[in-house]
Amino acid sequence: MKNRIVILGAGESGVGAALLAQAKGYDVFVSDFGKISQKYKNELNKQVIAFEEEQHTESLILNADAVIKSPGISPKVPIVQKITEAGIPVSSEIEFASRYTEARIIAITGTNGKTTTTLLTYHLLKKAGCKVEVAGNIGESFARKVLHEEVEYFVLEVSSFQLEDIQEFKPSVGVLLNITPDHLDRYENSLDKYAEAKFRMVENMNGGGMFIYNADDENIAKVMNRINIQTSTEPFSASFYEEGRLTVPALNYPGVFGEDYVEQPKLVFEDLPLRGKHNAMNMSAAILAVLRVGLTYEQVKKGLKSFKNAPHRLEPVATVNGVTFINDSKATNVDAVKFALDSFETPIIWMVGGVDKGNDYSELDELVKKNVKAIICLGKDNRKLLKHYNEMVSYIYETQDVVDAVIRAYHLGENRDVVLLSPACASFDLFKNYEDRGSQFKKAVKNHIQKLDTRTIDLNTSH
């Protein structure tokens, strides 16, 4: 009789896991408490994989030999509690998929910068001629890639949610970029518990691997001081970056991840593809990761020159009559916004708001007082933002319409001002996701600002 695997959640992660599990001979059942998109229903039907939507039928779930839980499902939901009480092992999709690949894994996590660092690491390996795929919390699921691709390397963006349910997941290189308050509603408002979820990545890295971490991050240092990491470690730091130049150590291992190494002259990289101190940290981490799996200085230098970052990350959209529009929709927490507000030397009209995740906006006060001339709140519930910033800036306005927000920002702007969409919040109140929010922002700029299809508005109308 086939072992039965139940998969909770039928998004990209869950369906990818279902396809891989079926290919490996399991009896598979998929259960989603919400509606399943037609795209994924078509895939499941094509492969004759049983599924249900808008319910969790306990009799079909609690007879499983194992459960794969999609990362978005909290361990506190009733069906997961019942699975745990029944003694059924629960794992994540990245855990399950890692059992079926011999490729070396570079896993990248952190509160901010994961996507940029993951894409740069992938790009450097790809440009060097390696057989490499990118997956995890970006693009297609890891399980789907394992099913269809035979590669030397996987570069995975992994979230704390994905790491919660690992047992044997063991990357060759683990990268931890930073830890700042985020998703605290998932972790009982405890930064320590959130940090512990991030550090689960190193649990199985006992020898033979490399843990690359941010030496400047106090929250990382606190955890490292109280746990015993059983693998080689290497720090990166803001001290690597100065005046547009990035200097990283060039350690030459006799064998990849060998115990002994010889320190070589440091490598200096100029003409960097990304600007700002926070991106210097991301680049440092990516460069160290690829050097540790065997890339040369020349390969890294060549690859850096051709890299372009993904959309929605401090993405220039347009400059109209001296007013520059920047799409930073991916900035869904306070720390990411801190980097954004510190990246410009000219006055900022800041568009902020959405689904608050327990943000402490006081962390931004110094930068707001210094750099922000006006605030536009774009969200359904802006009370927390309005209360915090009402006396701090001379103009604050709220709206639920991105076109209204963009037009008002344009009229507020003067020559060399920056209109910055950097929301500090999740997007699900008004948009499908952060990509949709950023795309609608860009569309509004294109259709109503670049074409100068703007209406006269009363700027005296503020909150």
Give an overview in words.
The protein has 3 domains: 4-91, 3-Layer(aba) Sandwich (Rossmann fold), CATH 3.40.50; 95-305, 3-Layer(aba) Sandwich (UDP-N-acetylmuramoyl-L-alanine:D-glutamate ligase), CATH 3.40.1190; 315-450, Mur ligase, C-terminal domain (Protein-Tyrosine Phosphatase, Chain A, Alpha-Beta Complex), CATH 3.90.190. The protein is α/β, with parallel strands linked by helices and 463 residues long. Helices cover 34% and strands 22% of the residues. The N and C termini lie far apart (66 Å). A 6-stranded parallel sheet has the order 7-8-6-9-10-11, covered by helices on one side. A 6-stranded mixed sheet has the order 15-16-20-17-18-19, sandwiched between helices. The chain is built from 17 helices and 20 strands.
Set down the secondary structure blueprint.
Elements: E1 4-8, H1 12-23, E2 27-32, H2 38-46, E3 50-53, H3 58-61, E4 66-69, H4 78-85, E5 90-91, H5 93-98, E6 104-109, H6 114-127, E7 132-136, H7 142-148, E8 153-157, H8 160-163, E9 173-176, H9 191-199, E10 210-214, H10 218-226, E11 232-236, E12 241-242, E13 245-252, E14 262-269, H11 277-292, H12 297-305, E15 315-320, E16 323-327, H13 334-341, E17 348-352, H14 365-371, E18 372-378, H15 383-389, E19 396-399, H16 402-412, E20 418-421, H17 434-450
Parallel strand pairs: 1-2, 1-4, 2-3, 4-5, 6-8, 6-9, 7-8, 9-10, 10-11, 16-20, 17-18, 17-20, 18-19
Antiparallel strand pairs: 12-13, 13-14, 15-16
Helix pairs in contact: 1-7, 6-11, 6-12, 16-17
Q: Assign the CATH architecture of the largest domain.
A: 3-Layer(aba) Sandwich
In total, how many domains does the architecture comprise?
3
Instruction: Tell me the name of the CATH homologous superfamily of the largest domain.
Output: Mur-like, catalytic domain
Q: Compute the separation of the termini in Å.
A: 66 Å
Overall, the morphology is: globular
Helical proportion, percent range: 25-40%
Mean pLDDT: 91
Main sheet makeup: 6 strands, parallel
**Main CATH class of the largest domain:** Alpha Beta
Rg value:
23 Å
Query: Structural class, please?
Result: alpha/beta
Could you tell me the number of beta strands? 20
Parts with pLDDT < 50 across at least 5 consecutive residues: 253-259
Helix tally? 17
Strand order of the largest sheet: 7-8-6-9-10-11
Q: Work out the strand percent.
A: 15-25%
The CATH topology name of the largest domain reads UDP-N-acetylmuramoyl-L-alanine:D-glutamate ligase
